[in-house]
Amino acid sequence: MIELTKNFIDNKKRVLAIGNFDGFHRGHQMLFSSLNSFKNCVKTILTFENLDKSYHNTNKILMTLKDKEDIKEKYNIDEILYIRFTNEFKNLTPEEFFEYYINNLNIDAIIVGNDFRFGKNLSGNVETIKKLFKKQVIVINLLIDNTDQQKISTTNIIKLIKDSNIKKANYYLNREYAVNGKIIYGLQNGHRLGFPTANIKLSTEYVLPGNGVYATKIKFRDKTYLSMTNIGRHPTLDELESESIETNIFDFKEDIYDEKVELFFLDFIRPERKYSSKEELIQQLTRDREYIINNYN
User: What is the DSSP string of 94-143?
Assistant: First the structure.
């Protein structure tokens, strides 16, 4: 992963896909497939760090730069270039963007989505790129979900996740939505219920599903385990001031405090609710765990 700064120069022969690529979803994967049609070029994506999150009506993200770097090989991407999204960069005209960041690179082709906008006040578009870049410009049309005619986009995926529609979000992503973090000490409520949990502190401000119970997988030390995750405030026990992420790992008894983990969301099981007693909650958690084992193993 290389930070692209003003007047950066090297001699690598590249084909370049440009976009924020938050999520690496099915629409993005169409751009990646177009990258892979080129031979004898470094297949590169140009993305952004700290993009103005208001673009997607949220201050949270689906992927960090590191997340993108970690899975780029899955999509046959050779290299990630990134630009820090500063106020100075935000106010560059499209012409200045090309002058400072693109023209000095040895690029055979540029690939963008047909809705790509760039430059001050998003004044640049696909036609602007075609005027400024004299070689090949490949434009990929937006991907539409034929079942409901919705655009497969980062904005719509964020909405699906927030609405706990994990299955649909995962379909749009063409993978299981995942977040990274580390295990921290919690209130030990799960232990008292007979469902010990790993409390996860996220490594960044990821988009999270709504409060409830989820079928999940958790990965650490290069091993993956089936699990059940609750996002919420413990309304039956000690009501918390803010949401926690607690994962009950099936058939697992090791101490993993301070371990870095990756949590994959498989499906929404039920909303969080307040039960009349601790015993009633235990019975429900037992049913939840059995359902997940029977359906997601």
Answer: HHHHIIIIITTSEEEEEEEETT--BSGGG-B-HHHHHHH--SEEEEEPPP
Please report the pLDDT score of residue 202 as a whole number: 95
Read off the DSSP letter of residue 62: S
Closest by CA to 68, choosing from 41, 46, 42, is 46
Q: What is the pLDDT of residue 95?
A: 96
Whether 203 shows a pLDDT value over 90: the answer reads yes
| H or E element that contains 167 | helix 166-173
H or E segment and range at residue 28: helix 26-35
At 76-123, the pLDDT tens digits run: 999 999 999 899 999 999 999 999 999 999 999 999 999 999 999 999
Reported as a single tens digit per residue, the pLDDT across 174-194 is 999 999 999 987 655 555 555
Q: Are 126 and 142 in contact (CB under 8 A)?
A: no
Residue 181 CB contacts under 8 Å (≥ 6 apart), including other chains: 200, 201, 202, 203, 245, 260, 261, 263
Within 10 angstroms of residue 75's Cβ, the number of other Cβ atoms is 18
On the 0-12 / 13-18 / 19+ scale of CB atoms within 10 A, 247 is buried
Nearest to 182 by CA among 94, 261, 270: 261
Task: State phi, psi for 34 to the nearest 5 degrees.
Answer: -65, -40
Distance of CA 157 to the CA centre of its chain: 9
Asked if 213 and 272 count as a contact pair (C-beta separation under 8 A), the reply is: yes
Token pair recorded at residue 106: 């040895």
DSSP states of 198-213: EEEEESS-B--PPSEE
